[in-house]
Amino acid sequence: MKTKFFLFIFILTLNVQLLTFNCLGQEQPAQYKNELRLDAIQLFKSTFMLTFERTLNDKSSIQLSGGIILKENESEQKRGGIVEVQYRLNRSFKKIIDSSTYSMVVYAGPFLRYRYIDATSTSYFYYTNSLYENNNYYYNKLYYFSTISGGALVGIKFSLFKYIFIDMSFGGGIKFTETNGYKTSTILDDAYTGVTPVGSLSFGFKF
Q1: 8, 147 in Cβ contact below 8 A?
Q2: Which helix (H) or strand (E) holds 158?
Q3: pLDDT 10s digits, 16-65
Q4: Which of 27, 36, 177, 196 has the greatest count of CB atoms below 10 A from its CB?
Q5: Range 120-124, long-range pairs (CB < 8 A, 24+ positions)
Q6: Which residues does 16 contact at the CB level (< 8 Å), separation at least 6?
């Protein structure tokens, strides 16, 4: 499972590099077609996630995202990664105020996401009897979560300044999880399988 995950990461990274090289190798038009953003919501999930979006034409774009998952404390450790691809159908609006151009994009489209986590759960307990001294004991449980999800979303993106943008989206999809632990009915849990909401709030710049 780990081999498949790292192979998937390698292929996605190679595609992003080839796409970026192709963009830089051509003459840049007046309208910038590349965008790099940071997902703020994923930060609260212990995930550092960056998104590269490339405008294909006036009505569509493709978006590739990748993130690193890292969380460590006394009772839990998580390490993993996430990759996602989106295809967007866009509708653009522009307005000029005091010689400054402000833009807004309304979009909708499908997405596909893969997420992998290695987790270690540490449990502590206190043990005592008449023969032995009091002691604290602990044991570790090792889990993995391999998740594939897909669905659709809608969103809006607008400019704060000439090149700075905020992107907000929401939608839903179906999530399938493979794990060596117990499945759960909690929608936001790593071990959940079923219908789930999705959303993002990111900010970045065009180039």
Answers
A1: no
A2: strand 135-159
A3: 544 544 544 444 444 678 999 999 999 999 999 999 999 999 899 999 99
A4: 177
A5: 120/76, 120/77, 120/78, 121/75, 121/76, 122/74, 122/75, 122/76, 122/77, 123/75, 124/75
A6: 52, 64, 66
State the pTM of this model: 0.76
The residue behind tokens 């450790």 is: 77
Bridge-partner residues for 99, per DSSP?
none
Q: Find the farthest-apart pair of alpha carbons in the chain and give their distance in angstroms, rounded.
A: 84
Structure tokens at 98: 């005091």
Are the C-beta atoms of 52 and 205 separated by less than 8 Å? no
Sign of CA dihedral 125, 128, 131, 133: positive
Residues 6+ apart with CB under 8 A from 138: 122, 123, 124, 125
Sequence length of the chain is 207
Q: Hey, what are 68's tokens?
A: 């690193």
Cα angle 178, 184, 189; round to 5:
80
Give the pLDDT confidence score for residue 29 in this predicted structure.
Answer: 42
**Spatial contact of 62 and 85, defined as CB atoms under 8 Å apart:** yes
Specify which residues 48 forms β-bridges with: 68
